[in-house]
Amino acid sequence: MSDTTPKIIFMGTPEFAVPSLRAIHAEFGVAAVVTVPDKPKGRGLKLIPSEVKAAALELGIPVLQPESVKSPEFAQQIAELQPDIIAVIAFKILPPAVYSQAKLGAFNIHGSLLPKYRGAAPIQWAIINGEKKSGVTSFLLQEKVDTGAILKTREVEIGDGMTAGELYFALMPLAAELAVETCGLLLKGEATPQPQNDEEATPAPKLFREQCKIDWKQKAETVRNFIHGVSPVPGAWTMFEGKRMKILKADLATSMWTAPGEYTIEGEDFIVACNTDAVVLKEIQLEGKPIVKASDFVRGWSGNTTGNLS
């Protein structure tokens, strides 16, 4: 590596961060990658690397896997690398002792248009709340999570009926473009950080499966947005004939004039009443079964054609 080559350290873990790693490495080179330790998975508890580690090894980039990003040893490792830039995408919360080592700046790419949706689940909450647009934001790291000065944003429209999973994949290439652009601004000294307006901030806390039971007493649009906002994970669910049913996609329908949670199976449609109007289920998954189209499930269903979801 020549003296004129910037030293960029990339920190990330999941699939979402991989296009950004590849893009930064192709444009500027990445000196080192930091990701989580390999995790045991499957029956044999085989150690599996993160998606970011797998990509880094493919690209021939050295990988660090600290047990704790707060340890003095890790901060020392980063200091010895003398980074110009630290780029963080879908990783852990870093202490100042680590991110302050970057000579030109340490930035994070966040999956929302900050200051809206600060937290671990910005993509999900944007869908749940019926937003019409989303995007990615690069911002300078500071001690309080997701509050640093904004460097750049990229917007994308949220299509009607889009799920969190679909928005996730739509944002991945935008994040990569923004990561490269942000590195370029920092390297050229052209970044113009803009403070966030805390009064416009909204929270986006992590969602867990037990929080994702569907409340059929909500209006149909709210129910549909909730289903799509937690699809595919953790997944909205309800109880159907004594079994947990995960619902991954639904469309809006007109009211059946029945009580919330009452379902009707007619033709190829699985219709569920809400507080106002109804939804037609499009993709479902019963306990222990694969994901199927609701129409396929209905065609093979020989049980009750009316009843209640709880």
Report on this structure:
The protein is an alpha+beta fold and 310 residues long. The chain folds into 2 domains: 8-200, Formyl transferase, N-terminal domain (Rossmann fold), CATH 3.40.50; 209-308, Formyl transferase, C-terminal domain (Methionyl-tRNA Fmet Formyltransferase, Chain A, domain 2), CATH 3.10.25. Helices cover 26% and strands 27% of the residues. It has 8 helices and 16 strands. Strands 5-2-1-6-7-8-9 form a 7-stranded mixed β-sheet. Strand 14 (278-286) and strand 15 (292-293) form a beta hairpin. Helix 1 packs parallel to helix 2 (51-59) and helix 5 runs antiparallel to helix 7 (220-229). The longest helix has 25 residues, at 164-188. The mean pLDDT is 96.
